[in-house]
Design brief:
- The two termini are 31 Å apart.
- Strand 17 and strand 18 form a beta hairpin.
- By secondary structure, the protein is mainly β.
- The radius of gyration is 24 Å and the shape is elongated.
């Protein structure tokens, strides 16, 4: 199950069109330490193409790690637990089934019973609620807690580790897209411990991806953080006291964010950091030392033309005492400019406007752009003004049939000179050229766009 898009590769003589795909079946793959695939199976009945999250941990106390999978964005908050060979152990919903943001997963033994608990966070688009479960889906430590303001709708990423070296594991939570780059550390029951990080600049509002690693062989764990979406591929490794052990860029020219995982892939007693692109990036995994040096270890977990990115986790899921790499596919929802945090793109040929935020398509609708005689300007612009109510009047000369006088037009975003995105109450022919250069929108979408839009948002009009 694939959804395809066109990729143009340049040869010496002429461009070659190849198919790349943005989504795929929910295939879990297991690789050994030499990156040879040993196991493959489908989660979520094999029918979901919205991407997955993954963690590994010994949730039943038998000495072998299990694979924990969470549904990705657009899916319900389903969590599934598998043995390393793909045998389904349990499944449940971590939050109300009506939630359609997906669920983030992590594992860690929080109550020292020899079994790892499963920690969940709500995916981007939902509130930052963290919950803890046992392997069967029974809540542990109560109903959970909100790591950030309950009205925040960027979701959160979660991980578990002993960050202060006291022998007791804590839960670290990172804010998802839409807020400041913020990571906080909590007790197992949700008490904020006073440790907080702001790993990236204040204008990085694409969220933070996190994982736990012991990169220096000490008694305490470190936190690995990366820009989750709509930003460059920076990775940082922090000690609990705020010291930075590593700070590097994982890829060249990547602006779609990254996912991170960690494990001791070379068995030297210190974990390596695995970094992989998120959506719009290929399925490549690159391993770094904790201070940022490239280990020269890398592989492609899925076909190279898959553009949905991936998530991964490291642990011993085969029971041979050696580390395995477990991967799951993501989904490319951007299909556009991954380097822009917020933008409005209108395709003149399709007569359709698409709105993107944090690298993902959030809304699309038919519009009416300028007729051939009065075309809509092409290129990249920015929202210069928001005007709730505006009159549009233009005189081309006495008795010219193209003259117009339109009063009380709501929901106007000016992007260039006299040109606006705005409501058009005088026709319902959206999907066809109708205007004198502005972009006409129906009432529902015009009001939504006006409320969503901000001065400075990028506006792109393409032929």
């Amino acid at each position: 199950m694939h959804k395809y898009g066109l990729v143009i590769t340049l040869s010496l003589c002429f461009p070659v069109l190849t198919l790349a795909y943005d989504s795929m079946a929910p295939e879990v793959r297991v690789f050994d330490k030499s990156f040879n695939q040993t196991t493959s199976f489908n989660a979520l009945n094999g029918s979901f193409d919205g991407g997955l999250d993954v963690a590994v941990g010994d949730v039943d106390g038998d000495g072998v790690d299990e694979i924990v999978v969470g549904a990705g964005r657009d899916g319900g908050p389903m969590v599934q637990v598998f043995e390393g060979d793909g045998t389904l152990v349990s499944q449940w919903f971590a939050y109300d089934q009506s939630l359609r943001t997906g669920v983030k997963v992590a594992t860690g033994d929080l109550n020292h019973d020899g079994k790892a608990e499963i920690i969940t966070g709500v995916g981007a688009g939902g509130g930052p609620q963290v919950r803890v479960f046992d392997a069967a889906g029974k809540s542990v430590f109560g109903p959970g807690f909100f790591a950030f303001a309950s009205n925040f709708r960027g979701g959160c990423d979660v991980t578990v580790g002993d960050y202060n070296g006291d022998g007791i594991s804590e839960i670290a939570v990172a804010a998802g897209p839409g807020g400041a780059a913020d990571v906080r550390v909590f007790s197992r029951k949700g008490r904020f411990l006073g440790t907080e990080f702001h790993p990236f600049a204040s204008d990085n509002v694409g969220g933070v991806a996190i994982t736990t690693a012991n990169v220096d062989g000490g008694k305490d764990d470190e936190l690995v953080m990366s820009i989750y979406s709509a930003g460059e591929d920076w990775v940082k490794v922090y000690k609990n006291n705020g010291d930075i052990l590593g700070n590097w860029k994982a890829f060249s020219g990547l602006y779609s964010g990254t996912n991170v995982a960690a494990g001791d892939i070379d068995h030297d007693g210190m974990a390596e950091v695995a970094v992989t692109p998120r959506q719009s990036g290929g399925p490549q995994v690159i391993f770094f030392e904790g201070y940022g040096a490239n280990t020269s270890k890398s592989f492609f977990a899925y076909p190279a033309d898959f553009r949905g990115g991936l998530n991964l986790a490291l642990g011993d899921v085969t029971g041979d005492g050696k580390i395995d790499v477990v991967t799951v596919p993501g989904k490319n929802r951007a299909q556009g400019r991954a380097d822009l945090i917020r933008y409005i793109e209108t395709d003149i040929s399709e007569q359709k406007t698409r709105v993107y935020e944090y690298g993902e398509l959030v809304r699309e609708f038919y519009v009416s752009t300028g007729i051939d005689k009065y075309p809509t300007p092409l290129g990249q612009f920015a929202v210069q003004e928001k005007i709730f109510m505006k009159d549009y009047t233009w005189n081309y000369g006495t008795n010219n049939p193209d003259n117009y006088d339109l009063k009380n037009v709501k929901w106007n975003l000016r992007f260039s000179g006299p040109f606006h995105l705005h409501y058009a109450y005088w026709h319902h022919n959206f999907g066809h050229k109708m205007s004198h250069g502005c972009i006409n929108i129906d009432a529902t979408n015009a009001e939504w766009l006006y409320n969503w839009g901000q001065v400075g948002d990028v506006v792109i009009n393409v032929p």
